[in-house]
Amino acid sequence: MDGTGPPERAPGFVDLVMLARQAMLDRGLEPDFPAAAMTEARALRAACSPAGTPDERSRLWCSIDNDDSRDLDQLSVAEPAPRDRIRVHVAVADVQAVVGYDTAIDRHARVNTTSVYTPARVFPMLPERLSTDLSSLGANTDREAFVVSFTVAPDGTLEASGVRRALVRNHAKLAYRGVGAWLENRGPAPAPLAAIPGLDSLLRLQDVAAQRLKGRRHEHGALDLETLEAQPVFEGGRVVDLRCEPKNRAETLIEDFMIAANGVVARYLADHGLSGLRRVVRSPERWERLVTLARSLGETLPSQPDGPALSRFLTERRQADPLRFPDLSLTVVKLLGRGEYVRYRPGDAETGHFGLAVREYVHSTAPNRRYPDLVTQRLLTAALDGTRPPYSDGDLDGLAAHCTTQEEAAEKVERQLRKSAAAQLLAPRVGDTFDALVTGASDKGTWVRTLTPAVEGKLMSGIHGLDVGDAVRVRLTGIDVAKGFIDFERAA
Predict the structure, then answer these.
(1) How far apart are CA 399 and CA 102, in angstroms?
(2) Distance CA 349, CA 270 (A)
(3) Residues of 323-348 as b/e, b for ≥16 C-beta within 10 angstroms?
(4) CA-to-CA distance for 141 and 148, rounded, in angstroms?
(5) C-alpha 473, offset from chain centre
(6) Which residues contact residue 290 at a Cβ distance below 8 angstroms, ignoring those fewer than 6 apart?
């Protein structure tokens, strides 16, 4: 042997990329692009803007995303308006201009309906030639976009909103970590931000607008949750650590803008008499457990679901016990129930999104990563052009059910792979004890999440009397990396 072969793997090593591929196949997802889709992708060119498209490249647009993101869906910019208003513009990549309806690329995207984010590899919904290039709002690149505009009043209400097409240019590719530290006065302005005169003041203005929006939604019951998702750290193909990063101010800025933009799009479609896909979270499935949980902490919630009351409870608990607030947040998320897509026809009763405290809400701002957003863009095109939309109400009913199912399948794959990564990390620690929180309790079993490291597993014994939100001491009894199984027993 000349020593140039692949490195030796420890006994029990599992290739997490191969595991992810199989997990996707098992749940009806396609990890690979069909040959026809790749042939289409190679032949595509950037979309040309129709004559008369407004040129808004001179605005100081910027993107804020993860450090390593290349599939950039949105840009944003803000400007002062009369009477202490702030005018916000959100540009969303015009993906539908590149992805033709019922093409091979579109059919593959319709199967998965979402990009799948596993610890070892991302499986994108669209070929990377599109998502990271032709349909991405990359730095210093001219692209056509849908622009959602709205004015934010001092009290956080939205005024004078609308949707249009425009030609835009990303003047600064920024990252959450650097912008968040700068906004929170914990670090200097990131280099791309400092290099553009005037961008710093406009970004501060974006932050003011976002804080107004957040404050208004919280008054109406939006839930300020803080869940920590541990991200595996790899060395030589193996997991060596799990790291949690709390959400920073830059992330909440983008979140608040996207919530506002999605509401504007929902109302725009309804005002034009078009049906669409709404994203809804119904009233909590287990409100009575939330009432009991609040009582155990010395707080009171009403007997019926009440968003503002739950929001106030969470605010008080964040202040009273910030260390354990992420654990409480996780419990609330589990008890709220799942989100889903539904077909909405103008005039239908509004179900709304309980957690965001908004009544009219679509997914429209991540078309490179989510299929419902691409569907919404095609509906927006019909509204803007005065043409017939490509989907009937029956089509939208089927897509709503399918997208909900596939999103759940993708989440299960992601959760399984996070567990497999965590199991790989914990393999040497079988027999150790941990402080944990009960995160699930049903006929299917009882699940717990250890506090350090943040790992979820099944409690195999000692489950009597436990419910979601309870604190418990557990012992790690076994792991199965391939299946993502992490088993605990209740410790004395």
Answers:
(1) 14
(2) 12
(3) eebbbbbbbbebbbbebbbbbbeeee
(4) 19
(5) 31
(6) 284, 301, 310, 332, 335
CB 425 within 8 A of CB 241: yes
Q: Specify whether the CB–CB gap between 280 and 340 falls below 8 A.
A: yes
Q: CB–CB of 90/263 below 8 Å? A: no
Furthest-apart CA atoms within the chain: distance in Å: 77
CA 491 to chain CA centroid, Å, is 35
- Taken in order of first residue, the domains within the chain and their CATH numbers are 16-282+337-414 (no CATH), 430-492 (2.40.50.140)
Q: Which amino acid is at 408?
A: E
Q: Is 264 helix (H, G, I), strand (E, B) or coil?
A: helix
The token pair at 446 is 């009882």
Half-sphere exposure of 260 (CA within 13 A, CB side): 36
Residue type, 139: A
Supply the pLDDT for residue 410.
Answer: 97
Q: Which residues are registered as beta bridge partners of 79?
A: 87
Asked if the bond preceding 34 is cis, omega within 30° of 0, the reply is: no
pLDDT tens readout for residues 424-445 = 989 999 999 999 988 888 888 8
Question: In angstroms, what CA-CA distances link 72 with 165, 168, 370, 474?
Answer: 17, 13, 13, 42
pLDDT digits (tens, 9 = 90+) for 16-36: 999 999 999 999 999 999 999
Beta strand spans in 422-491 (E): 433-442, 445-450, 455-461, 471-480, 485-490
Mean pLDDT score of the chain: 90
**Spatial strand order in the sheet of 85-93:** 74-81, 85-93, 142-152, 158-169
